[in-house]
Amino acid sequence: MNRFPALILAGLLALGACAPMPMDVAAPGGPVPAPVATRVTLPPAAAPHQGTPDAAARTFVQVMRRMEPVVREECLLRRTRPISCDFTFVVDDRPNQEPNAFQTVDRNGRPIVGFTLSLIAQTRNADEIAFVVGHEAAHHILNHLDRRSGAASAAAVVLGTLASAYGGDASAIERAQQIGATVGSRYYSREWELEADYLGSIIALNAGFNPINGARLFERIPDPGNHILGTHPSRAQRIAQVSRAVRDVETGRIR
């Protein structure tokens, strides 16, 4: 595969550290802050960049310069518990990696958001990159990593207990726990993907990008549909969630 210029890979794109503070979260199904006077208008769709890895790399750097301070501000404003908002953004430059973006934390709880080169190369404009950045940052702000682990553990306990109650041996109980953990994490991840789409759209919009145009990235990836064990919502659900977020910001219902 084509390699991106060293400009992206030369260092980590990081935000400054912050002190914990309480906040109210604005997520689907959760409490919504009172309307605010300031409204944000959806900006025009970003122009496509040249369809080359180098052009995508340059666009990525430009997007990150605008997104970084907004991600930090949104984290301080909307986090659901005391968490670090000292984000580090990294690019996985290993060859032959599938298009992907991910969010995790280091041993000190510092959030890390990563992107593969192949994902960046697949984007067509700045809006698509900004949408992915906002989505992954939203997973950390909404505490999805810990919540997913908790959901998996709870489901494992439930199925393990049922297997034991019906006379299962140690092997059957362990297998039931494994199935429970898998089902629990997958079931809740669809809801959390929609939450991240919603908040990620707001983050991108507040940074001056067009999340509706950014969400067109969904049109070029396989649609998971509504499979019971699917880890992601359907394309239609995700696009509708992005439109809802933009509408809520435009009307001043949320900021």
Mean pLDDT: 73
End-to-end C-alpha gap: 40 Å
Uncertain stretches: 1-37, 148-164, 176-188
Estimated share of beta-strand residues: 5-15%
Strand order of the biggest β-sheet: 1-2-4-3
Total tally of structural domains = 1
List the secondary-structure elements in sequence, H or E: HEHEEEHHHHHH
Shape: globular
Helicity level: 40-55%
* Number of helical stretches of at least 4 residues: 8
Structure summary, number of beta strands: 4
Structural class, from secondary structure content?
alpha+beta
Radius of gyration from the alpha-carbon trace, in angstroms: 19 Å
Largest sheet data = 4 strands, mixed
Polypeptide structure, described:
This protein has helices spanning 6-9, 53-78, 117-122, 126-141, 144-165, 170-206, 211-214, 235-250; strands at 13-14, 88-92, 101-105, 111-116. 37% of the residues are buried. It has eight helices and four strands; from the N terminus they run H-E-H-E-E-E-H-H-H-H-H-H. Strands 1-2-4-3 form a four-stranded mixed sheet. It is globular and about 40 Å long. It is α+β, with helices and mostly antiparallel strands and 255 residues long. Strand 3 (101-105) and strand 4 form a beta hairpin. The protein has one domain (7-148, 180-250).
